[in-house]
Design a protein that fits this description.
Elements (H helix, E strand, L loop, with lengths): L5 H4 L3 H22 L21 H9 L18 H9 L55 E7 L20 E2 L5 E4 L15 H4 E4 L2 E9 L2 E3 L3 E4 L10 E9 L7 E9 L9 E8 L3 E7 L10 E9 L4 E8 L2 E6 L2 E6 L8 E9 L7 E13 L4
Antiparallel strand pairs: 1-17, 2-3, 3-7, 4-5, 5-6, 5-17, 8-13, 8-17, 9-10, 9-16, 10-11, 11-12, 13-14, 14-15
Helix pairs in contact: 3-4
Length: 380
């Protein structure tokens, strides 16, 4: 889109907005032709009404908030809705999105509660190892068929809120007593749906043998976090493997919070190189997952879905097994997805993507007892 001239910048607010509206609709015809050839943007900036497409409805939202401070339509983060945000929206006009761990939920946002927010749990560790209270399942300590155990974190070393770095994606945010290391997305990274900042510095802490995600409003906006293990102490990626996690939430009334714990391609090429999302879903709903095809089968929306009748507010163990030509999602030892189609063939990293999807001022604790990562040792 052509950048505005100095003359446009010097116009009064109302006249300037009128000219922008006129310009937008003049460009619209070109945009509708152009969109057929545009590449899909997995982040889909410009989708302001969260319907996974950028349409005239989103344009209307932006224009109604033009020149306002701190609005959700401020996509470039400069504090005001300006011509730059309009340019971003138009560059994605007509595009749709169904990936990145964000298959649209079928339930509307939950109404905010009238009860006060919960606070992070403070139960001290007890018993052998560092079990979280009520989990009743120890961290794995042995290899399994086709897989060699290479990484565990039982969260035995306490870390207060504020200890996880929020400014550097490569900085070590946490080191457990066994030397396992973690990084997390900085607050400059935005989540998938509402493009809200990840706030590991205000969300993550370790206490009572658990990594706690205290999901709550930060600076007036619901906030999540997106940590990732350094599986060999220095890097995150591997080709094939098994990934286990055991967690629960402390309430089903979890408002806008959503999980998509995923394997994401090192190449950053989506949908070409696939994606594995398990578990995925609103924390107020039932456990599900999505296997996004890679290779010749890859496209936006090309996927297998997993479903269950289990909710996130009870203890469950979630497992992804990724082998050459096969991927399985396993919930408490039961296979709920088994696919041989479009299985990724390039290295991937594990992101515990815990984000927002909708509105509400609820708070919820996601309590992660332990994780385990295995390398693949079977036939190739």
């Amino acid at each position: 889109m052509k950048q505005p001239t100095n003359g446009l910048k010097n116009l009064t607010g109302k006249r300037r907005l009128a000219m922008i509206v006129a310009a937008v609709f003049a460009v619209a015809g070109v945009v509708f032709i152009w969109q057929s050839f545009a590449a899909v943007n997995p982040n889909l900036q410009g989708d302001l009404n969260n319907d996974n497409k950028v349409t005239i409805a989103d344009l209307s939202i932006l224009l109604s908030n033009f020149n306002k401070d701190g609005d959700a339509a401020d996509m470039n983060g400069d504090g005001k809705v300006t011509i730059a945000d309009l340019s971003i929206l138009l560059s994605n006009f007509g595009k749709t999105y169904s990936g990145g761990g964000t298959t649209p939920p079928t339930t509307p946002p939950t109404t905010p509660p009238t009860t006060p927010p919960t606070t992070p749990p403070t139960t001290p560790p007890s018993g052998a190892g560092c079990p979280a209270e009520g989990s009743n399942q120890p961290v794995p300590s042995a290899d399994t068929s086709d897989f060699k155990l290479i990484f565990t974190s039982d969260f035995c070393t306490d870390a207060p809120v504020g200890s996880w770095n929020s400014d550097d994606a490569k900085a070590i945010g946490y080191t457990d007593s066994n030397g396992s290391k973690w990084v997390s997305y900085p607050k400059t990274f935005k989540d998938t749906y509402q493009k809200r900042a990840y706030r590991s510095d205000q969300v993550l802490s370790v206490k009572g043998g658990a990594l706690n995600f205290f999901l709550h409003p930060v600076d007036g906006q619901p906030a999540g976090a997106n940590p990732s293990p350094l599986i060999d102490g220095t890097q995150q990626n591997q080709l094939y493997g098994r990934y286990d996690a055991r967690f629960k939430t402390d309430t089903r009334d979890s408002g806008p919070y959503y999980v998509a714990w995923l394997l994401w391609p090192q190449t950053e090429k989506w949908p070409d190189d696939g994606e594995e999302d398990f578990p995925e879903g609103k924390l107020s709903g039932k456990v599900g997952g999505f296997h996004h095809y890679a290779g010749a089968s890859a496209c936006v929306g090309c996927q297998d879905a997993a479903s269950s009748n289990e909710y996130f507010d009870t203890w469950h163990t979630y497992t992804i097994e990724w082998r050459p030509g096969n991927v399985k999602y396993i919930l408490d030892g039961k296979v709920i997805l088994d696919s041989n189609k479009g299985v990724p063939t390039k290295p991937m990293r594990w992101q515990l993507q815990t984000e927002t999807n909708g509105s509400g001022n609820q708070s919820v604790n996601l309590i992660l007892d332990w994780v385990a990562v295995y390398s693949y040792t079977g036939a190739k």
